[in-house]
Amino acid sequence: MRLKVAMLGVEHYHANFWASAFLQRPEVEIVGVWDPVADKAAEFAVRHDIEAQGDLRSLIRRSHAVAICSATNEHLMLVEAAAALGRPVLCEKPLGIDRAQCDAIAEVVARSGIRFMQSFPKRFDPANHEIARLLKEEALGQVTLCRIRHGHGHGLAEAFRSAWFVDPARSGGGTLLDEGVHAADFLRWMFGEPESVFATLSSAALGLPVEDTAVATFRYAQGLIAEVTTSWCFAAADTSIEIYGTEGSILLSGVDIASRPTRETDFLRVFRRGKGEGWSASEVVPSFKTGIFHEHVARAFVDALKRGGPMPVTIEDGRRAFAMIDAAYRSAATGRAEPIRA
């Protein structure tokens, strides 16, 4: 029997990548697409040769699982609709627009018992898995500093500056939430939970109701400092991730839009001290460079549904990454370091 997936909300562009990934799987059928704006659903349906549906509940009832790729403020309503019919959910990041909405979604999921997967595509990039391996092997010795620069230059285009991303009521925040939540999840995956954060924001470049540039510095109990720098105004960039330890360093390029065109080889570079000291380059090619990135999330969702067991990225991952960004916003407002509230 084919797995029937309903796509709920298409205002986030990533819906196009998910649809392509679903349609490439012969064992999957997209039974329809729904969006609160019927014209958007109709346009999306034509683009992907699927059916647009006007009745949300009817569409969910016809499905085995749903994929939510709406504006962030609609996540709660759509999760509630899916949970009412017991359908598993794949949900775009961030989880919600604020802590209250994130907690409400988590309560719905817990109460209904539905399977839930948060979309964090960095979890499926082979370059990041190589980094995780090196850290597990303590190849860098004691890690003292991690720097993540993640973003793009879409804010330099008028179409983006008038989209829902820049409306805090619909998005929950600017580049710190939109792009920074990817970095937050990466930090949790690699190093666990930070204790506190100090952050600063700026909207000077674009003059939007939300920040276009942000820096957040997280501190861990063992002394590790992790810096997240994000912007919608990166015209071009190279290194996206830097990790420094007492015995070596890791540099990774080509894993965000700004850095994707920069280089064609040597994306992951590693320096080791001691015998044979020097730099080496891994042969691994980041998913972002291959052009297949967000699709991995949809593929992983299908695989998890087929095999059973836990989802590869959970609602708790979504909540805790959001909590890191939420604390950063509080810090920017108070002007002091703020604790991370799980």
Number of helical elements = 13
Our measurement of the CA-to-CA distance between the termini, rounded to an integer number of angstroms, reads 40 Å
Average residue-wise pLDDT: 97
Shape: globular
Strands of the widest sheet, in order across it, are 13-12-11-10-6-9-8-7-14
Q: Would you tell me which CATH topology of the largest domain applies? A: Dihydrodipicolinate Reductase, domain 2
Query: How many structurally independent domains?
Result: 2
CATH C-level category of the largest domain? Alpha Beta
CATH 2nd-level architecture of the largest domain: 2-Layer Sandwich
Radius of gyration: 20 Å
Report the strand count: 14
Q: Which stretches are low in confidence, meaning pLDDT under 50 for 5 or more residues running? A: none
User: Class by helix and strand content?
Assistant: alpha/beta
Fraction of residues in helix: 25-40%
User: What percent strand?
Assistant: 15-25%
Verbal overview:
The chain is α/β, with parallel strands linked by helices and 342 residues long. The protein has two domains: 3-114, Rossmann fold, CATH 3.40.50; 122-289 and 323-339, Dihydrodipicolinate Reductase, domain 2 (2-Layer Sandwich), CATH 3.30.360. The protein has 13 helices and 14 strands. The protein has helices at residues 14-23, 38-48, 56-62, 75-84, 99-112, 126-136, 158-161, 168-171, 175-178, 180-191, 287-290, 295-307, 315-334; strands at residues 3-8, 28-34, 65-68, 89-91, 116-118, 143-151, 196-202, 213-219, 225-231, 239-245, 248-253, 268-272, 278-281, 338-339. The chain has a nine-stranded mixed sheet. A five-stranded parallel sheet has the order 2-1-3-4-5, sandwiched between helices. Helix 5 (99-112) links the parallel strand 4 (89-91) and strand 5. The longest helix has 20 residues, at 315-334.
